[in-house]
């Protein structure tokens, strides 16, 4: 390049690097930092090196699921379990995948899913028979009150909540209360329909349909961040 030749590099970092390479001594490379505008740092941080971790950063701790979503799901789990004791657990099994953390990833296996669905189907059939124990008696109520919070806590932990966090405790209590309410309300509803219709079967089928709707809504996983470590 001839002396006195000027290269305009203003506003063009690539041309600035090229000009520096031509004017530098042989064997010495020169690097010119781009002078163009870059992304602004987050509020409260002086430069981009101090940026807070983002949701796309690998290895970060998963974000906690929104509390409102988990409480709503706990209510649905409790209502479904109060009506059919195995409904909530079956929903947890069906919605789990092999990518979930242990032990929930094992629930995605086909044998486990078949067993869970078979248990719920058997309960649905048994509930229409006269030999079915009253759900408000200890033999029917205790399993419901215990299973509902276990399923709610399992769903929270599977979706990223801390096992010792306040969200888990709140959802466990919510699910247990909802299961108790559903157990007693279901008995009253069935008795009312039996008096009006003259048979218990229509009420049982209506309750099964309602449980199906609850399980359908319950199987929506709470929105939360899942980041591989």
TrEMBL record:
Protein's organism: Pseudonocardia dioxanivorans (strain ATCC 55486 / DSM 44775 / JCM 13855 / CB1190)
Biased composition (Polar residues): 1-11
Residue ranges with Low complexity bias: 16-31
Region (Disordered): 1-68
Name of the protein in its database record: Uncharacterized protein
Lineage of origin: Bacteria, Bacillati, Actinomycetota, Actinomycetes, Pseudonocardiales
